[in-house]
């Protein structure tokens, strides 16, 4: 196993962002296929620089896969990344560094495709999880209503977006006014030039993991804690397990994906500090 001595060399360890939507699960799988380098640095720190706070390794700036400096807009965000790097022990394991992977994607990918990413998030409104309800049994219908009706009320009252619901497998076309209001609500988080790539990248990850832009915005606005939103996104799966028994493979997958969800929510909050 080759030992890396230069922070620049670490860029090859993380996947380079591309134009397609961020897929944190696929990113983690690619990371795991790489030979993991030994930890070579003594300390990771957040250092003030022009335009924000840089992640440094023994005083040298860490780089993204595209060889850009890993600079965050707030001290809280940079310190969170530094803590992730300091938590590495004998080897540097990207699968245990979801904040770094997300920050890399924000800098190398989302920053150059900000509005495209905003639009990708908003398109989830056309098939948002909370709009598709079971016809039965009554216990599942009630569980979905308890978890998702407050999200629809939030969209209606806070965002001005009145979404329609459908039962079963019937597709429902949402009103243009609702989709326009959702797009505006997502665009709001792209207004701050410094924070926007990180906030939008985090929203995209939360949206794609939950299948719901409305729940991701609920987390962004403080309606839902990340763990509450995550539980709401798995109402159907939990019901099936109560009926048919635990699915250990599904639960293991959920645990892995939760790490990315939690990191996205944490990065989102930290760049608002």
Automatic annotation (TrEMBL):
<dbReference type="Pfam" id="PF07542">
    <property type="entry name" value="ATP12"/>
</dbReference>
<dbReference type="InterPro" id="IPR011419">
    <property type="entry name" value="ATP12_ATP_synth-F1-assembly"/>
</dbReference>
<keyword id="KW-0143">Chaperone</keyword>
<keyword id="KW-0809">Transit peptide</keyword>
<dbReference type="InterPro" id="IPR023335">
    <property type="entry name" value="ATP12_ortho_dom_sf"/>
</dbReference>
<protein>
    <submittedName>
        <fullName>ATP12 ATPase</fullName>
    </submittedName>
</protein>
<dbReference type="GO" id="GO:0043461">
    <property type="term" value="P:proton-transporting ATP synthase complex assembly"/>
</dbReference>
<comment type="similarity">
    <text>Belongs to the ATP12 family.</text>
</comment>
<dbReference type="InterPro" id="IPR042272">
    <property type="entry name" value="ATP12_ATP_synth-F1-assembly_N"/>
</dbReference>
